[in-house]
Amino acid sequence: MEREKSPEVYQSNPLIEARKPMNALEMRLFLLAVAAVNPHLSEKDKYYDHEFKELHLKPGELKAIFGNGSYLTRLEEVCDGLMERTIKLRDGKGGFVIYTVFDVIRYKPKDGLRIQFNHNMRPFLLDIYESRKGYTRIGLKQIFQLSSAYAIRLLELMLQYRGTMQGKRIVRHIEVDDLRFLLNVDEGKYKLMAEFKRRVLDAPLREINQRTQYQLSYEPTKTGRKITGFTFTMDCSH
Fold this sequence. Notes:
Elements: E1 8-12, H1 13-16, H2 24-35, E2 55-57, H3 59-66, H4 71-84, E3 86-90, E4 96-100, E5 102-108, E6 112-117, H5 122-125, H6 128-131, E7 135-139, H7 140-143, H8 149-159, E8 169-175, H9 176-182, H10 193-211, E9 215-223, E10 226-235
Antiparallel strand pairs: 1-7, 2-6, 3-4, 5-6, 8-10, 9-10
Helix pairs in contact: 3-4, 8-10
């Protein structure tokens, strides 16, 4: 017995904390593939996948992501990028691990897209209960309103802290260096803090506030006169 494809996706917390160098379209396709995974979430969970199956995204689902007009021309480019994508996890002690996300991607016009995750992604998407690292649940409806990879990642990072919510608000502090890692912003990019805030934070926050049920804001924190981090607050009352 299997669950039907869920409008929600489940990722282990280490995967939420990983560096995912994907653009918005790649992220959408990745998350739609994750939604087709039937993970082991709890001790009482009886029906779950024991192995990664070849995930089938029908032509209609692909059109919903890419649009009816040009999705065929963009699909191959996005899939080429996805096959090259890796995720990077840091261990907090200066070490890191890099994983390849997908093992194979196949497309046929009448059949759609078939994707299989790399076996090493098991603890992040499949064996969530066994990994004992916890997980984050995110509604696809909220994610698919967003066109910015930064906005998608910021929403993921805030919803990871849903369990700490007080008064229908989630508060999370992230240091600048960690934020660059989590949002895949290279060290040499947006060196001026004003530009970093404008491109990486302000525009994505406006999109989250306008297109989802959440209201996200931030306050910079300083060490001396230098901004070294940001405290994000997300209102979930709606």
